[in-house]
């Protein structure tokens, strides 16, 4: 609920949830420390790839020909390559 300051008044639910989240993270970090492992870090799903300008041009032409974005063509190519590797590992 909003009060006269225009801020969200959640009755303390957000601060309680934040406290539970912090405790969970602390527990996970302690668990990793005890096992001598590095904690896993989340992936954003974003990264930059540098390519030769001629490849960039060809990629753009392929995308246009297929009626797709460059992003879509790159994502499909990466997915296809990675899935082939995964399938080989499973054999």
Structure description:
The chain is an all-alpha fold and 91 residues long. It folds into two domains: 1-42, no CATH class; 53-90. It is built from three helices and no strands. Helix 2 (53-66) packs across helix 3. The longest helix is centred in the first third of the chain and has 23 residues, at 13-35.
The end-to-end span amounts to: 56 Å
Radius of gyration over alpha carbons?
23 Å
**Mean pLDDT level:** 88
Poorly predicted regions: none
Q: What are the defining features of this structure?
A:
91 residues, mainly alpha, 2 domains, 3 helices, 64% helix, elongated
Mind sketching the topology for me?
Layout: H1 13-35, H2 53-66, H3 70-90
Describe the structure concisely for a colleague.
The protein contains 3 helices and no strands. It is mainly alpha-helical and 91 residues long.
